[in-house]
Amino acid sequence: MTLDRFRSVADRALGPFVGAAQTAGLSPNGVSVIAFLLAVAAGVVYGVAATDPFLYFVGAVLVFLNGWLDLVDGALARELNVASSGGDLLDHVLDRYADIVIIVGLAAGIGRWALGIAAVTGVLMTSYLGTQAQAVGLDRVYGGLLGRADRLALVGITTGVAAFVTLPLGPLSLVGWLLVVFAVVGHLTAVQRFYYSMQALE
Questions:
Q1: Any residues with CB less than 8 A from the CB of 19 and at least 6 apart, and which?
Q2: Exposed, middle or buried by CB within 10 Å (0-12, 13-18, 19+), for 12?
Q3: Within 13 Å, how many C-alpha atoms sit on residue 91's CB side?
Q4: Is 131 exposed, middle or buried (0-12, 13-18, 19+ CB in 10 A)?
Q5: pTM
Q6: What contacts 198, CB < 8 A, 6 or more positions away?
């Protein structure tokens, strides 16, 4: 279950957005920063969503925009032929901080800090194992049960639904169960990537 395998399909739909970014005079790094700021806004909105459940829908829109711009920055760099290691590093650092602020916002909004810690460590370890494989000479690993594209899609869909479904589902709210998924499946994905990398290194 990983949407990352459909990156090539998404790339074909990016043309108008890459053109718009060029028209606006944006650099790939500038697009990355805007994407990060949208993630920060989503985290803030999720953190106060208990005051108005409709804010979950606002957060969902911000998360989808973050995910889309995260594709646009790479496509723009390729179009302008300015792809660089520095840009790649900036993109990955901002993506990790974006993951953190979104999950912390979700946990803060429902007051489930232990779940938030479990979820954010699962997400960070998944991303770490993906890039660490590249650091030891393998290709960057995007596979596993839950990649970043999957996470953003799940956050957007779940919080979009949470804007209208406010009743608890057993001991947790819908957002609480989302954090459980990230905690459990995130760590399983990290283990998957670790196993794949170790097998490839033998």
A1: none
A2: exposed
A3: 22
A4: middle
A5: 0.89
A6: none
Of the listed ranges 10-19, 20-29, 181-190, the one predicted with least confidence:
10-19
Which amino acid, 146? L
Positions of E strands within 112-165: none
Tell which residue, 131, 157, 135, has the closest CA to residue 64: 157
Residues 99-110: pLDDT tens digits? Answer: 999 999 999 999
Would you state the pLDDT for residue 66?
A: 95
Please tell me the predicted confidence (pLDDT) of residue 62: 98
Closest by CA to 46, choosing from 100, 126, 124, is 100
For residue 75, what are its two tokens?
A: 């496509």
3-state secondary structure 174-185: HHHHHHHHHHHH
Q: What is the reported pLDDT for 202?
A: 77
